[in-house]
Design goal:
It is built from 15 helices and ten strands. By secondary structure, it is of the alpha/beta class. It has an eight-stranded mixed sheet with strand order 1-4-5-6-7-8-9-10. A two-stranded antiparallel sheet has the order 2-3.
């Protein structure tokens, strides 16, 4: 498969992060980095300057994607596939070193249906509203197959700068979903973590998004309360979410690494981390306290110990809670084997423990680690988690 030399000259800008639910979305960068950039639990944008990209520059990127899209389509026709991408053609594109990552990324997006786009970076809503709407409209015009366009945003930005009509205008321009980092509903914890928003603003922003008709994902950080605030974190977060009733409640488990301001507080003892099982107890209290009527809980990240904490509210609340209860019904050895297997990517649920061969293999690995260095299993688990940050 001979690559066209022109493909290697086409570039467009891609930011550093997207939600797991946007794994097969086209990534288009409207802003660079984070305009707030003070959160204690985040290291991603530290030391990087925030910038609003000019609309003309964004359009150039969209045009670059379209040019790559057209070349992928032409390649498909040349290979007798009628403009479509078969698994074989996609595999060939990824195997050929003459095709660059931009070509491969667009090809994968096309293979997935060319339906979803994620707008980067951390808070595109700080753009001028007219500019944001213009860029969205252009994106939709160039790619009429797109069905879902999503972006990160901040509650404080929405609560202070937007009305429901402003958001409805963005919806008309093509924005269909917003991902907001609620993280916690506890005001004391929001201040401690320097989130730059209040519980009231979280609720007000969430309600505005819901009123506009844009889908809403709210993110919660399990473990963010630490040993000091775990109960307040669970109850106040449940109360805030109940006041919003978002379309999705997405769980992320706290993992503190060097580079995060929070790391220094952990090192000094000012913030004491919870264990995996303490976090599950916190999460059970949070979910049990929710009074949502139209939300879906999603545990869609490898940092979360129990992926099966997933379902619609209120009808599946008891089943979701039973997932956590079932974990605590395991004996001590089973819980440790599951934790190691989950963090290593072997288990996706506790049902995996029924595979005796895998269980014994993990049990043996744990025993060997402990024989070589007592207490090293927890260190190993911590290192496994760091690779997912």
């Amino acid at each position: 498969m001979k690559a066209d030399e022109g493909e290697r000259r086409l570039r467009y800008e891609i930011g550093p992060i997207r939600p797991p639910s946007e794994a097969y979305s086209l990534l288009i960068r409207f802003t660079r980095n984070c305009p707030w950039n003070k959160c204690e639990f985040c290291q991603l944008y530290k030391g990087r300057r925030f910038e609003r990209r000019p609309v003309a520059e964004i359009k150039e990127d969209i045009d670059a994607v379209k040019a790559i899209h057209d070349r992928v389509t032409a390649l498909s026709w040349k290979r007798g596939e009628g403009g479509r991408l078969s698994p074989g053609l996609l595999k060939g594109i990824f195997a050929d070193p003459r095709y660059d990552d931009f070509f491969r990324t667009v090809a994968l997006w096309m293979y997935s249906g060319s339906k979803n786009v994620f707008i980067q970076d951390a808070n595109s809503l700080v753009m001028k509203k007219d500019d944001f709407a213009e860029a969205l409209t252009y994106l939709r015009r160039v790619f009429p197959t797109v069905e879902r366009v999503t972006s990160y945003g901040r509650s404080q930005t929405i609560a202070q700068l937007f009305t429901a009509d402003d958001l409805k205008r963005l919806k008309q321009a093509g924005l269909t979903r917003l991902h907001l980092g609620l993280e916690t509903g506890a005001d004391a914890l929001l201040r401690y973590m320097r989130k730059g928003v209040t519980k009231a603003q979280h609720i007000a922003a969430g309600q505005l998004v819901k009123e506009s008709g844009i889908e809403l994902s709210e993110y919660v950080i399990a473990g963010l309360g630490g040993k000091r605030w775990w109960q307040e974190h669970a109850l106040e977060t449940a109360d805030a979410l109940s006041g919003i009733d978002p379309d999705f409640i997405r769980i992320r488990t706290l993992k503190v690494t060097r580079g995060m301001p929070l790391f220094e507080k952990v090192e000094s003892g000012d913030f004491v981390l919870e264990s995996d099982e303490e976090i599950l107890g916190e999460l059970r209290l949070l979910i049990g306290s929710l009074n949502c009527t139209a939300s879906t809980v999603k545990s869609d990240h490898i940092l979360n110990l129990l992926e099966e904490v997933d379902g619609k509210l209120p009808e599946e609340k008891d089943r979701i809670l039973s997932v956590i209860d079932r974990y605590f019904e395991l004996n001590e050895e089973e819980r440790l084997v599951f934790r190691v297997g989950r963090r290593a990517g072997v288990y996706r649920g506790t049902d995996g423990l029924a595979d005796k061969a895998t269980y014994e293999r993990l049990k043996k690995a744990i025993r060997q680690m402990e024989e070589q260095a007592p207490g090293s299993v927890e260190q190993h688990l911590s290192l496994l988690l760091e690779q997912y940050i």
